[in-house]
Amino acid sequence: AVERVLADEKVGTCPMLDFVGDVRQFVVEQENGKNRRTVPAVERTVAANDFYDYYSWSSHTGFEEQQTSIMFLYRDLNHPDELSFFWIHGIDEGAKPGQSQGSARVNGLITGVPSGTKIAQRDDDSGEWDWTSSTTPGVLTHKGPHLGGKWTFDQNTDGGAVNGLPVDEKWELKIEAEFIKGINKWFFYFGDGSAPQQLDPKEPVYLHPVVTTVDLGVAPYPDVAGPQTFCTLVTSTHKGDELAIRFKWGDGTPDTVVKKKEGELACAEHVFCGPVSDSCGGTVPRQVRVVV
Predict the structure, then answer these.
(1) What pLDDT shows up at residue 292?
(2) Who has the most CB within 10 Å: 95, 145, 194, 271?
(3) pLDDT value at position 183?
(4) Helix (H) or strand (E) holding 290
(5) What are the backbone dihedrals phi and psi of residue 40, each rounded to the nearest 5 degrees, phi first?
(6) How far apart are CA 190 and CA 192, in angstroms?
């Protein structure tokens, strides 16, 4: 069996668990909580620009679809604290049988971009995906705190990616789109294998991480109880086989078994600490372990 330690819990204070190199959770929603989902990012073991796989004036992530705009968060497991955001429209000619992207135009604007964020990939150049001081979608000034897109394409993709988003800090992206021609669907993709969330193209999208602030000064056991989600990317030489992924909680409760194939994300929820009145264990640290 192959064993991986996901996190340590410092028993006695009952803090939220710290993740070590594995997935966090993020919220995507539209106005008034519409289309709200809380999900993990897409995770692979290559850098963001390598996963974008830009050639033939197009991305090749495998998520692309004709007449469709897609977005997703991405984490390189070799650098787990580096978070990226992808926004891609259309599909390259010949990428999928029977799919062909016709002539299309899309304008975009992203505000609330955290400092330190950098452009990881342009599709195709700074005339289509760059920084801007304007708050109008499709207007690029090539400097400023916002990200702008002005894309015109035919039989290929357009879009771009950024990296350097903080993983465990509070921030919120507001994403606005104008689908002028050739794109009639908008989706957000997730890393847990669940169906992508279809979005309303007439409304902005809001995206932020799930960040919990724990006050360790509250004694003896702060009421931060609740289900914690743990995820791990399944890696195996047994391509195509369904594997049993066992989450060993180390707190006397039964293990959780999730069946996934190589390359998929296995996730499980667990509650470690109860209400304030609970004793919440002794003084020996526990570890969450995953066994394949």
Answers:
(1) 52
(2) 95
(3) 98
(4) strand 286-291
(5) -85, 165
(6) 6
What is the DSSP-derived secondary structure letter of residue 208?
A: E
Q: What is the model's pTM?
A: 0.70
Backbone angles phi, psi at 46, to 5 degrees: -130, 160
More confident residue, 218 or 60: 60
Long-range contacts made by residues 210-216, C-beta under 8 angstroms, separation at least 24? 210/24, 210/25, 210/26, 210/27, 210/38, 211/168, 211/169, 211/170, 212/16, 214/15, 214/16, 216/13, 216/15
CA distance 250 to 256: 11
Please report the pLDDT score of residue 51 as a whole number: 95
Contact, 259 vs 246, CB < 8 A?
no
3-class DSSP state for residue 245? strand
| Tens of pLDDT, residues 109-161 | 999 999 999 999 999 999 999 999 999 999 999 999 999 999 999 999 999 99
Beta strands in 12-145 (DSSP E): 25-29, 37-40, 42-44, 68-76, 83-90, 104-111, 118-123, 129-132
Round to whole Å and give the CA distance between 129 and 121: 9
In Å, the largest CA–CA distance within the chain is 64
* SS3 state of residue 198: strand
Judge whether 137 and 129 are in contact, CB under 8 Å: no
* pLDDT bucket at 266, cuts 50 / 70 / 90: confident
For the chain, give me the number of helices (H) and strands (E)? 1, 20
| Whether the Cβ atoms of residue 127 and residue 115 lie closer than 8 Å to each other | no
How far is it, in rounded angstroms, from Cα 232 to Cα 197?
A: 22
The 3-state DSSP class for residue 92 equals: coil
Cα torsion at 30, 64, 191, 180 (round to 10°)? -10
Residue type at position 283: T
